[in-house]
């Protein structure tokens, strides 16, 4: 059974989410603060399929939870829940490895759809090992072990950065629009904020260039999108 952790300190929202998850055959776990959430994530890491994480939490914030997950290499997919006024926090959350975001107020049906999309993407990334090793000059990707190296230096990528890189390398030298990236990597339609794509691409680009600064791995094609593997 799919298992999802709901982290929110508002009882009404937590109850609404858990009810709708149960109606879809999803087993919900709940936490009302960041510290409790982190303990559950650490204990249930191998069993959790997704985390719904409110950013405004008492004590340890949602952003702090994401930081700790990154430090401890806890790679469970995360959907952050934010108020519309929390744009800066939402961007920081994406930079810290969140897979998606939902703004309050939200539709419970939309939340369930986003969860299912994130879980599908994560399963597809795990199962898609048809090309076990990808090599492009200094870049190597071991798809069976999820290890990425540049000039023999391992890169620490978030799950979303890893999925984005895989999509780039499997479409090497093609110009990919933001809409294509949102539909194939995020599995959402183009009405979602395209800055989410730009943030993740920028983060991935910086990490790739760390050990090969002379290489322009991801080229911006003005007015169209991005192109990978072309100098």
UniProtKB/TrEMBL annotation:
<keyword id="KW-0805">Transcription regulation</keyword>
<dbReference type="InterPro" id="IPR001789">
    <property type="entry name" value="Sig_transdc_resp-reg_receiver"/>
</dbReference>
<protein>
    <submittedName>
        <fullName>Two-component system, OmpR family, alkaline phosphatase synthesis response regulator PhoP</fullName>
    </submittedName>
</protein>
<keyword id="KW-0238">DNA-binding</keyword>
<feature type="domain" description="OmpR/PhoB-type">
    <location>
        <begin position="131"/>
        <end position="230"/>
    </location>
</feature>
<dbReference type="GO" id="GO:0005829">
    <property type="term" value="C:cytosol"/>
</dbReference>
<keyword id="KW-0804">Transcription</keyword>
<feature type="DNA-binding region" description="OmpR/PhoB-type">
    <location>
        <begin position="131"/>
        <end position="230"/>
    </location>
</feature>
<feature type="modified residue" description="4-aspartylphosphate">
    <location>
        <position position="54"/>
    </location>
</feature>
<dbReference type="InterPro" id="IPR001867">
    <property type="entry name" value="OmpR/PhoB-type_DNA-bd"/>
</dbReference>
<keyword id="KW-0597">Phosphoprotein</keyword>
<dbReference type="GO" id="GO:0032993">
    <property type="term" value="C:protein-DNA complex"/>
</dbReference>
<keyword id="KW-0010">Activator</keyword>
<dbReference type="InterPro" id="IPR039420">
    <property type="entry name" value="WalR-like"/>
</dbReference>
<feature type="domain" description="Response regulatory">
    <location>
        <begin position="3"/>
        <end position="119"/>
    </location>
</feature>
<dbReference type="Pfam" id="PF00486">
    <property type="entry name" value="Trans_reg_C"/>
</dbReference>
<dbReference type="GO" id="GO:0000156">
    <property type="term" value="F:phosphorelay response regulator activity"/>
</dbReference>
<dbReference type="GO" id="GO:0000976">
    <property type="term" value="F:transcription cis-regulatory region binding"/>
</dbReference>
<dbReference type="InterPro" id="IPR036388">
    <property type="entry name" value="WH-like_DNA-bd_sf"/>
</dbReference>
<dbReference type="Pfam" id="PF00072">
    <property type="entry name" value="Response_reg"/>
</dbReference>
<dbReference type="GO" id="GO:0006355">
    <property type="term" value="P:regulation of DNA-templated transcription"/>
</dbReference>
<keyword id="KW-0902">Two-component regulatory system</keyword>
<dbReference type="InterPro" id="IPR011006">
    <property type="entry name" value="CheY-like_superfamily"/>
</dbReference>
